[in-house]
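User: Structure with magnesium ion, tokens only please.
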Amino acid sequence: MFLSKLDIFQVRNLEAVQLLCHPQANIIYGANGSGKTSCLESIYLLGRGRSFRHRDLRVVVNNQADELVVSARLTRDSSGSSHQLGIKRTSKGQFEARVDGKSLQSAVQLVSELPLQLIDAHSFMLLEGGPLQRRQFLDWGVFHVEHGYTELWRRFQKTLKQRNQLLRHGRMDEALLRTWTAELTPLCEQITQFRQAYLAELREPINRAVGAFDGLGEVSFDYYCGWDDSRPLDEVYEQDKTRDIATKTTNHGAHRADIRIKVDGQPAADHLSRGQIKLLVYALKLAQASHYREKSGESCLFLLDDLPAELDYQHRGQVIAYLNELGCQYFITGVDKQDFECLLEKMPHKMFHMEHGVASIDETTGIESL
Ligand SMILES: Nc1ncnc2c1ncn2[C@@H]1O[C@H](COP(=O)(O)OP(=O)(O)OP(=O)(O)O)[C@@H](O)[C@H]1O
Ligand SMILES: [Mg+2]
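Assistant:
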């Protein structure tokens, strides 16, 4: 899957930018504040319906404009079919998404149209941050390979919310608590089964990706399901009911899950340098892309913000080689053009120069295909 023509209107300082993209390697370089990350943010908006930098899309719309629009032509690897994707955030705060002119009901449909992976300066949080990041990592994978997962996830969130609302109430209705607990338990168990099965399948692609990068050691991981799984979950809820009531929240369940990632038997976040942590994050995300391709026949799109600032020269080369092997389209940003010239020397690619919100194709790079 790749984008061929990308149009961006009024996203931050990008008033009107068109990129005729390369099906694989796209480099966007330019000075600080020129609009490189905003380009990636635009693609992310198209694929996720939200920004990775700000919750409030008002901040993302150009200061002088009322609305933003991003659209792109997308071609699938498996069928060769082409589709037009578009999103718009209107002046009234409404969000509209379209595929081939038809309105989508929710942003979830966008996510399945355009599977994308972002790696930026905050991505080390996947290992160093809280469990939420790791659950999101897992859920990205399960969502893209298991079609029923979205509905299951929605029911789980709704039931959990209702149980928590009840726990926050002053006077406890024990019968109602039993009802919500009985509904929540199988949902937690099903989510756990999906996640565990996905993680088991990811083991091999992770080992392969880790093996492609020098100096990472042996990576292993365990899934913690969110409760003491030596006991059935309904029993855990019953025994810990008083604590849930006292703390006014559900202390056990799929929303408390985590993956414990180790390198050479030590917790990865304690054992690795910051650069190695970033590299492991690349390996984990590339492994997901590899697994997704095996399952669906489609490649993912990668957005790599400021790759030169994140990794040394040798590892940058290894990441690019792996992306090429997986047939992924990628958009990489960086300040200096020279950082990419040697890396991409013999490889077809497109390079865009970003200046004050205006992108121009860099003809001097010579090698360009399509
Ligand atoms: N809503 C907005 N309207 C107009 N301009 C904005 C808006 N929000 C941010 N900007 C500006 O957009 C510019 C582009 O920001 P962006 O983060 O894309 O730059 P960048 O090229 O990635 O820079 P860096 O190399 O520092 O990461 C910045 O100068 C910023 O001040
Ligand atoms: Mg930037």
